[in-house]
Amino acid sequence: MRVARFSAGGDPVYGLVELASDGGKHPDTVAVISGDPLATSVQFTGERHALADVRLLAPVIPRSKVIAVGPNYAELARDLNQELTDTPLTFFKPNTAVIGPQEPIIYPDFSSEVGFEGELAVVIGRICKEVPPERVQDVIFGYTIGNDVSARDIQFNEAQWARAKGFDTSCPLGPWITCHLTLEEAQNLTITTTLDGEVYQNASTADMVHSIADLVSFISSYTTLLPGDVLLTGTPGGVGLMNPGQTVSVSIDQIGTLTNPVIGSHDSAGANQ
Questions:
Q1: Based on the structure, what is the number of domains in the chain?
Q2: 80 and 133 both lie in a single domain
């Protein structure tokens, strides 16, 4: 099951994405559902759209928080000359940082070195606290793709990462939430990030230092997780810088591809946020 949040010319609605498996003979579609799948029971409305005819939005706007993880792949730690820690390094991104597929990442005026970080994102499905690793599967609604956009020059010159990683448009999410993966399957997915079509990141979630189960368990040990909270699980090595006019795409097998253009702040007037 793939849950999307989209607009077909009106207010945002949710739907179930149905990908055709006939080699393109029939279009991919999205079937509209009533209600919020993270909060209420839902029903099919009978309305259906071709996926190409709708505008995909961020599949979830976290009700309270996005929790991100610092170095969680050994290769990235080497790239950035950072140390891996026995316990995960975590930080928060505000929900105002969230944008959806094809929405522009706005290059902030205060930075001259903005980078991409393709990541597997976990969407929490129920209120939970102090979840043991063996129960983590029970609290996960599904998985989507995230890009932990970071102002590198600010990140390495300020003690706190709030400005470097929390600015508006610094958390693209999408294209939808994939709900049918088991925890074991999610822990063995290929992540590929391209900039203008050139591959920069290509790794597996199996390479995480701290597993998905351990991350959810650790984070829930100090903060209550709510339905719709998003956990960014860390990025592999190969991160790079991007500039206005470029396009970044993050693909994760069995989930999809999240693509966003990068624009300058002076070009952002009228851009959808």
A1: 2
A2: yes
- Residue 163 and residue 261 in one domain: yes
Q: Residue 47 falls within a domain, yes or no?
A: yes
Structure tokens at 217: 């368990």
Chain segment 21-55, per-residue pLDDT in tens? 766 677 899 999 998 999 888 899 999 999 999 99
Portion of the chain with pLDDT greater than 90, in percent: 84
Going by their DSSP bridges, the two strands 66-69 and 230-232 should be labelled as parallel
Same domain, 44 and 144: no
CA–CA distance, 4 with 252 (Å, rounded to integer): 16
pLDDT of 270 > 80? The answer is: no
Question: Are residue 237 and residue 132 in the same domain, yes or no?
Answer: yes
Handedness of CA 202, 162, 12, 44 (dihedral sign): positive
Does pLDDT of 269 surpass 80? no
Residue 189's domain comprises 66-267
